[in-house]
Amino acid sequence: MPQQSSDAVILTNITKTYGETTAVKDLSFSVKHGELFGLIGPDGAGKSTIFRILTTLLLADAGVATVDGYDVVKDYREIRKRVGYMPGKFSLYQDLTVEENLHFFATLFGTTVKENYSMIKEIYEQIAPFKTRRAGKLSGGMKQKLALCCALIHRPEVLFLDEPTTGVDAVSRKEFWEMLQRLKQQGITIVVSTPYMDEADLCERIALMQSGSILSIDTPAAIKHAYPDELYAVKSANMHQLLKDIRQYASCYAFGEYLHVSGISENALAGYVKGHTDVIIKKVAPGIEDCFIRLLLKHE
Amino acid sequence: MNEKAITCKGLTKRFGDFVAVDNISFEVNTGEIFGFLGANGAGKTTAMRMLCGLSYPTSGEAAVAGYDVFTKQESIKKNIGYMSQKFSLYENLTVKENIRFYGGIYGLTNGELKEKGEGLINKLGLQGESKKMVGELPLGWKQKLAFSVAIIHQPKIVFLDEPTGGVDPVTRRQFWDLIYEAADSGITVFVTTHYMDEAEYCNRISIMVDGRIDALDTPASLKQRYRAETMDEVFYALARGAKRSAD
């Protein structure tokens, strides 16, 4: 039986292998009711496997998982009524129109578009001018909005979004995250995955993932706070040479206009870049990507 | 020697009433890393297909590695390399077979294939994996291998279409090390990306909006012009005015 007090999603020691490849390794975490939770990591981290297990589309080899209090194996029928899922690959019916897709999914869940229209109104209005167009003929951004509407039309308790912003330009990504923030205000639990580290800061809590394991799990602020070293941003007239020069002595990675250097003192750093012109060195606060790199290197 | 790698003037492509690429003009210098940015649907892919000799422009003129895009498409193809995240290597061929296959297509002799192939495998540290199917390699290795294969014939220009999508932050940066190395060896790099920090690694960048090039300059000058702290802000300022969106 579901327990309202327990977390919206709970994974305990979940493992999944495909042949010799271990996709998810003894993974445990939970997501609170109403939380916006992010799985952050590159391709192959195990993000999609977790979504498929939680949406009851795939059986884990070992471990237990519940969604909204229901067991993913025993109570899969209950879970399917209560979750919305937007897979990484566009999975609506290309030959049906925008409107037809939406009505189809509403009917499938025993409801009507009219009944739950308030849930999708804001998003649907953006694609409503194209409601008689076939889904296959929509642009990438519109497909994404339609898929989100179809995942929401039965008013799910938990929404699973697998890499909704991959391959999407910076402006559309920003708009998508604004939509998620507004959905969250309606009380829905959202689990979202992304390979873009800058999106981590838009989640309440995140799990940084690599190769089927969690490197770190906490609020973005706490993860950044736990970065152990001083971090310096440095630039000069010749960035590629600068990178090669500093890398001999310290951990050094390109971060846009600057290089980020850690593991040495500011004085030592100033000494290593003596041969360069137009040098700027400043202390900076680490971002999630700095933390991810640090954890990745430690992990390996 | 200071010949332009790419020149284009008034380049336009129409599909019926739709102007996918609208009268764009720019030049790319030899050895430059040129970032070709734009929102989804801005016309980047269509422009890139014309420059790679895969599609004829409706009007305008362009030359790539000195060859005309109307009359010398086959010469263009021989003198460029191409890699994208979506299409790169054959998953069910081994590392060695892929190198041999692509090297052969690019016209390398058996002697060159052997020498370059071995050099490439050693450089990437793939000695233990050379007989493995490419499909078994981690994505990051695949991407690095795909890039190295795309420049195995030392082309004048390499076109990279979102080469770093989906890889981890360390691999993404290792990939840029390879790009810098290629540029140092004289290969001109033409690259698209959705990662705005990567725009900073380019010598110059252009930003396409609705088929036009709305801005083209060094990252530093663009930031100054748009009074922005980051390239992200520059991109947002330009692209949010876009009227169309597509894939």
From TrEMBL, chain A:
The keyword Repressor does not apply. Keywords: ATP-binding, Nucleotide-binding. It holds the Pfam family ABC_tran. Residues 9-236 form the ABC transporter domain. One of its GO terms (molecular function) is ATP hydrolysis activity. PANTHER family: ABC TRANSPORTER G FAMILY MEMBER 20 ISOFORM X1 (PTHR43038:SF3), ATP-BINDING CASSETTE, SUB-FAMILY H, MEMBER 1 (PTHR43038). This is ATP-binding cassette domain-containing protein. It comes from Chitinophaga oryziterrae. The lineage of its organism: Bacteria, Pseudomonadati, Bacteroidota, Chitinophagia, Chitinophagales.
Automatic annotation (TrEMBL), chain B:
InterPro entries: AAA+_ATPase, ABC_transporter-like_ATP-bd, P-loop_NTPase. Residues 6-235 form the ABC transporter domain. Keywords: ATP-binding, Nucleotide-binding. It comes from the Bacteria. Transmembrane segments: none annotated. The keyword ATP-binding applies. GO terms for molecular function: ATP binding; ATP hydrolysis activity. The keyword Amino-acid biosynthesis does not apply. This is ATP-binding cassette domain-containing protein. It comes from Chitinophaga oryziterrae.
